[in-house]
Design brief:
Helix content: 10-25%
Order of helices and strands: EEEEHE
Strand order of the largest sheet: 4-1-5
Radius of gyration: 10 Å
Number of domains: 1
Structural class: alpha+beta
CATH topology: Alpha-Beta Plaits
CATH class: Alpha Beta
Distance between the termini: 8 Å
Oligomer: single chain
CATH architecture: 2-Layer Sandwich
Length: 61
């Protein structure tokens, strides 16, 4: 199964909490997903859960 990751840049605080997952990094003060489509949720779901601004979404594709 494939999952699509989206980040709402308007909501993103740039706090870096999501960077605990290797797929995320902070650039120019906002979060970015290195891969916007992944085969497994893995730590991407943890990034969704930990984001204080609720800016990260993971949806089945």
């Amino acid at each position: 199964m494939t999952y699509k990751i989206t980040i709402d840049k308007e909501k993103c605080l740039g706090c870096g909490a999501c960077t605990q997952c290797d797929n995320f990094e902070i650039k120019d003060g906002k979060a970015y997903a290195k891969k916007s489509e992944v085969e497994e949720l893995g730590c991407n779901q943890e990034a969704v859960d930990i984001c204080p601004a609720d800016a990260i979404k993971v949806e089945k594709k």
